[in-house]
Amino acid sequence: MEAMSSSLLHSFFFLSLLFSLANAVPRIHYHDFIVQSTPVKRLCNTHSSITVNGQFPGPTLEVNNGDTLVVKVVNRARYNVTIHWHGIRQIRTGWADGPEFVTQCPIRPGGSYKYRFTVQGQEGTLWWHAHSSWLRATVYGALIIHPKEGNSYPFPKPKRQTPLLLGEWWDANPIDVIREATRTGGAPNVSDAYTINGQPGDLYNCSSKETVIVPVDSGETNLLRVINSALNQQLFFSIANHKMTVVGADASYVKPFTTNTLMLGPGQTTDVLITGDQIPARYYIAARAYASAQNAPFDNTTTTAILEYKSAPCPAKGASIRPVLPSLPAFNDTATATAFSTSFRSPGKVEVPKEIDESLFFTVGLGLNRCPSGAMSSTCQAPNGTRFTASMNNVSFVLPSSFSLLEAHHQGIPGVFTTDFPAAPPVKFDYTGNVSSSLWQPTRGTKVYRLEYGSKVQVVLQGTSIVTAENHPIHLHGYDFYVIAEGFGNFNPETDTSKFNLDDPPLRNTVSLPLKGWAVIRFVADNPGVWIMHCHLDVHISWGLAMAFLVDNGVGELESLEHAPEDLPLC
Ligand SMILES: *[C@@H]1O[C@H](CO)[C@@H](O)[C@H](O)[C@H]1NC(C)=O
Ligand SMILES: *[C@@H]1O[C@H](CO)[C@@H](O)[C@H](O)[C@H]1NC(C)=O
Ligand SMILES: *[C@@H]1O[C@H](CO)[C@@H](O)[C@H](O)[C@H]1NC(C)=O
Ligand SMILES: *[C@@H]1O[C@H](CO)[C@@H](O)[C@H](O)[C@H]1NC(C)=O
Ligand SMILES: *[C@@H]1O[C@H](CO)[C@@H](O)[C@H](O)[C@H]1NC(C)=O
Ligand SMILES: *[C@@H]1O[C@H](CO)[C@@H](O)[C@H](O)[C@H]1NC(C)=O
Ligand SMILES: *[C@@H]1O[C@H](CO)[C@@H](O)[C@H](O)[C@H]1NC(C)=O
Ligand SMILES: *[C@@H]1O[C@H](CO)[C@@H](O)[C@H](O)[C@H]1NC(C)=O
Ligand SMILES: [Cu+2]
Predict the structure, then answer these.
(1) d(CA 143, CA 85)
(2) pTM of whole model > 0.70?
(3) Binding-site residues, ligand 4, Cβ < 6 A
(4) Which of 81, 126, 281, 436 could be cross-linked to 87 through a Cys-Cys bond (beta carbons 3.0 to 4.6 Å apart)?
(5) Which pLDDT score, from 0 to 100, does residue 374 have?
(6) What is the enzyme's class at the highest EC level (predicted)?
(7) Helix%, strand%, coil% for the chain, nearest 5
């Protein structure tokens, strides 16, 4: 009897071992994304929005670390489109990264392209979005990466997990909005609403019935995966009466810390744990702008969802009781934004590159182009009859049109780009002061900065106050980087190095460059390809706030870019 149960026990363990080993084998997930025009009603009006599979927001993809995704994108819309898998490292698979004219030509109406890539060593929350004109206003969704089967989170397993995508809605066609701005040279119209999982929430007209409900039960701890997928706005985020414990950001774990308010720039994600420790009731989850620029128009509305305890009394019919609203910081509360962004640490000591091969200094900011004499005033609607522009190191980035940068690099096609992106700005000045108007007009160019495979790179990002100073969410494709320091004013290489955290800095793919300030990032250039680095405010990338790194192949196949897929769209 005893022997038998022990052998049963043995075979049980053996079977469960086999089972978990079988599950640990990475999986391949196949998806079809049909990009199409879909009627979407918000704020009392219906628009023909571009969606994926008719869903807004688009489908949530869930994978385990180590899995492969194969997504066939079919373009049935009337616009060119590409899809970017925001934050995915795309090691050796730059062809699947997605930014139009950088790693591929657009998928034209009627065309299709299969994105194939493997998730390697990333866990947490990322997202996907269109990377073509302003289509990402409605073409976006969550991309959730769980630990490998059999591995656990570095925190108790949450009872429920809810992605919360913060978005931005125009009561117009967003493509018309950016086209109008491109024509006039002025600033594009601001949005009419923010959204949580596609819904503005009941502080807006015609929106109360659809307000998103986030369930919670007394005593349980849940994981909220907050993603800023807004086009042009940094957002504060808060939940009435509930503290949040931040455990991850941009698909890397962080040393847990507790806060009442998050601030996310577009492109950033934050994973938080919340515990149902309040009186069972309904509490607002709310987000609104962190608008750092002075005198610039912005959408000052507030989006809400409702955190609802399952045991809460049903809202009385007719006399519905308003949930409690959280207090959100003032729109210009840079102190709260800074306190939040400087709270991030890696969970423990990390390998930060120490000896730097490439020490770069990039200025980041807006500019104004003079209009040629005789230009129509209707096309020069920026201040004083100029046109808005933006640049890094005084180069306003121009996308190529005949070949993508990656194809031109891989096939050695000359004349598409030059490799003279400057390592430092051409003119040094007081970046945060009153800048002479003689410096306001950048040059235009398709310039990349070339990096040897494996080089250890440091970039000091310095905001300028040309036209207006503001916070910029700077996003690098193909890499995660350590944010080793940030501060206000002009970066001082003599004294500010003492602020460098080379011990446990956070790993991110998007850094929130402080208002009138700087941030320092480090990474090892171990992923060959062409990788755009840009401001994730789409209005700024539209004006040229971008550059690209060209990372050479290393030695052998495992350090080289793969061959281009056969169905890569051509121009
Ligand atoms: C932008 O806003 C102006 C003023 O409200 C409006 O007349 C115009 O139609 C808007 N443009 C677009 C493209 O919606
Ligand atoms: C909501 O509708 C009312 C009545 O039509 C209108 O006065 C108000 O301006 C609208 N509010 C918003 C935010 O659109
Ligand atoms: C938003 O801006 C409008 C117009 O500029 C103003 O009337 C309104 O009071 C502002 N709302 C908030 C909450 O600041
Ligand atoms: C923020 O705005 C308020 C008024 O809206 C103003 O009184 C205050 O000085 C501003 N604070 C900063 C830091 O700009
Ligand atoms: C616009 O021009 C006026 C007069 O030429 C000048 O005083 C002002 O500083 C200019 N403003 C901007 C934003 O260029
Ligand atoms: C900025 O400098 C210009 C000329 O250099 C001057 O006319 C202007 O008043 C200054 N503005 C501020 C806000 O100091
Ligand atoms: C950018 O380059 C243009 C053209 O050479 C020059 O006029 C301008 O002063 C430069 N601005 C800065 C900030 O370097
Ligand atoms: C669509 O992409 C093609 C290149 O593949 C380009 O020639 C065309 O101008 C693009 N159309 C628009 C509207 O951008
Ligand atoms: Cu991006």
Answers:
(1) 8
(2) yes
(3) 330, 332
(4) 126
(5) 85
(6) oxidoreductase
(7) 15, 40, 50
Backbone phi, psi, residue 21, to 5°: -65, -45
> What pLDDT, on a 0 to 100 scale, did the predictor assign at position 375?
85
Per-residue pLDDT at 316: 44
For tokens 């009872």, what's the residue?
A: 159
C-beta separation of 287 from 200 below 8 A = no
Using a 10 angstrom Cβ sphere, with 0-12 exposed, 13-18 middle and 19 or more buried, the burial of residue 205 is exposed
Q: Tell me, in angstroms, the distance from the centre of ligand 4 to residue 236's CA.
A: 16
The answer for residues whose C-beta is within 8 angstroms of residue 555's C-beta and 6 or more apart is 453
Q: Which residues surround ligand 9, an ion (CB under 5 A)?
A: 86, 475
**H/E/C letters for each residue in 413-444?**
CCCCCECCCCCCCCCCCCCCCCCCHHHCCCEE
- As for ligand 1, residues whose beta carbon falls within 6 Å of it are 172, 176-177, 180, 189
Q: Is 438 in the pocket of ligand 5 (CB under 6 A)?
A: no
Domains by residue range for the chain, with CATH: 22-146 (2.60.40.420), 161-341 (2.60.40.420), 358-559 (2.60.40.420)
Is the omega angle on the peptide bond into residue 106 within 30 degrees of 0, that is, cis? no
3-state secondary structure of 177: helix
Among candidate residues 356, 346, 390, the one with its CA nearest the CA of residue 493: 356
Spacing, Cα 467 to ligand 6 middle (Å): 12
Give me the pLDDT at residue 23, please: 56
The predicted structure's pLDDT at residue 1: 36
The binding-site residues of ligand 2, defined as CB within 6 angstroms of any ligand atom, are: 204-205
- Under-70 pLDDT residues of the chain: 1-24, 315-320
Question: What pairs with residue 162 in β-bridges?
Answer: 224
Tokens of 549: 């790194």
Torsion of CA 199, 202, 207, 208, to 10 degrees: 110
pLDDT for the residue 17 = 45
